[in-house]
Amino acid sequence: MKNNRLPEVTVVMNNYNNAKYISDAIQSILNQDYENISLIIIDAYSNDGSREIINDYTSKYKSIKKIYTDYYIPYPAITYNLGFMNASGKYIAIADPDDISLSNRISKQVSFLENNNSVHIAGSDCFEFYDKIENKIPIYSSISENLKNAAPLVRNPTIMLRREILSKHGLFNWKCEYAADYEWIYRMFYQGAKFHLISEQLLLYRKSQTNVSHSKAINQSFKLLKFKIIFGIKTKRIFKFFWLKSIIDTIIYLIILLIKKFIKS
Question: Please, which residues have CB within 8 angstroms of residue 161's CB and are 6 or more apart in sequence?
């Protein structure tokens, strides 16, 4: 059901080979108690049956739009941007294809942003789980705590933002590869965007048990280290204890990955 009196929210879902979970993710958006939502699903050339599932949903629901790439795109930043550029809502929410948004997620975030005009991006706390939702663990955080520890200010799949701010702060930078969300969040923060983290679990965040390849993990860690240093300098936090500790921890993790790769080769 659509209520045009409410601000439109465009949910952007970026997918590659998540056929096992994407139905639950899509259904969680359809089950929202908010009544003016459109969903854009961008698929980066999946070969696991994801597109058949997406096609089935788009044939049944006019509120769901699909964007398919003609070849495999390895960097999520590019496909996220395709979704952002096709969004029409006053607000854009991010939803990952292996997570589950609780039914009140969108209404809670819209209500907060509608009543707090000075805030540009709202995230939330979440539950973490592996395969069994009943074993979910509540996660609590805050903007100040995340900033102190050089962590992302909000988790990417909990984000809702005002679409208008993209013209000022820009889209994901695809050259940042797998650390693009970290760079994007801290770039917006450094440029003056105001963040808020709603102290309520509005998302079920699936923890992956798959092993990331050493090459990908090394690349990601290099990028993350680079951005922690850059934004540590820009925000004048580079020599604060916990920020510096986060940089050192990343360096140690990177060294371990390089040693493992050397041993395997």
Answer: 91, 92, 120, 121, 122
Instruction: Express each pLDDT in 166-197 by its tens digit.
Output: 999 999 998 888 899 999 999 999 999 999 99
Q: What pLDDT digit, counting tens, does each position of 13-24 carry?
A: 999 999 999 999
164 part of a folded domain: yes
* pTM of full prediction above 0.70: yes
| CATH number, domain with residue 175 | 3.90.550.10
Same domain flag for 188 and 221: no
Structure token digits, residue 191: 């440029």
Position 3 in a domain: no
Q: Which amino acid is at 129?
A: F
What kind and span of H or E run contains 108? helix 105-115
CA 222 to chain centre: 20
Report if residue 1 sits inside a domain. no
